[in-house]
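Protein in question kept in full:
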Amino acid sequence: MNKIPIGVVGLNWGRSVIRDQIVNGPASEHFELAAVCCKEADKVDACAHEFGVTPYYSFDELLRDKRIPAVGLMTGPAGRADLIRRAIEAGKHVMTTKPIEIDPDAALEVLRLARNLGRVVHLNSPTPLPSPDIRQIMDWRTELGLGRPIAARADIWSSYREQPDGSWYDDPVKCPVAPIFRLGIYLINDLIRLIGTPQAVSVMSSRLFTGRPTPDNAQLSLVFENGAIANIFSSFCVNDAQWWLSSLTLNFENGTVYRNVGPASGPNPRERPELTVVTNDRGFPRTRSVVAEGSTEDYQWSAFHRAIQGRPVEGDLTDEKVVAALRVIRAMARAEVSRQIEPV
């Protein structure tokens, strides 16, 4: 397979993406690391030396490199739409990370520009195609006649004891309701894909262990246009070695789907989610269980590679669907201040 050269911008999270995705992981089949870029010269030099690639100390310098048709943009979300715009106008395709931006209107504008220019912009949440676990839920809904979505409870947690460092994580404007914005965003995107368009939100949050001025414990409630309701709990405070499981209970009118609910029974439930559906068989519960090969958090490098080559990506998300979670986040930020239910 023809590997596409890629340069990675942002070497905090970006270094993990390089190591675990591009050099040693699933992207290695489709992409070859060609350059690294960051404002901090020591990080650039260390990465360039470790991986044997070209160092760049400015974004514009990397964009002028005609050998590199794709960039992995792993910077903070605030103002990322402008970086994407500069990349696509320079002829680059972009893989980036969640959330794509803070400003939904700026994100929508740059995604539309990308389509007009024939550039590809993908990210890991929402993924361009339904992940295997989401696809399985969609298939069960059709196959088993589960009917309308009624309600959902979704949880994701980890164990952080962070201290302020002056980054965007410390800023309540750039990082509203931090556990939801940083981790719960996956679940917001899942619920939008599975249920529909949110109509209004409310939020509660607290600070238990963090040294940051942003919260570390939070829950978000949503009501959808179709009448379904949902709750997302996200926390940095739970130390039980069951981190980032993205558990979900999704009630339909004719059944219930569970994803990673309860203690993990398999070795890698984050990468291979455990799914069960329960339906009504003449008054008795009937269950089916599967393990999905891939999760909602994965970067879809194969789809990115196909799209760059001009091959259609069946079921690709609309631009408005990509930014739908950002509209929820904007309403959530207002709700954090007002302590009221806020329209999306």
Notes: The mean pLDDT is 94. The CA atoms of residues 135 and 315 lie 11 Å apart. The longest helix spans residues 319-338. The chain has nine helices and 15 strands.
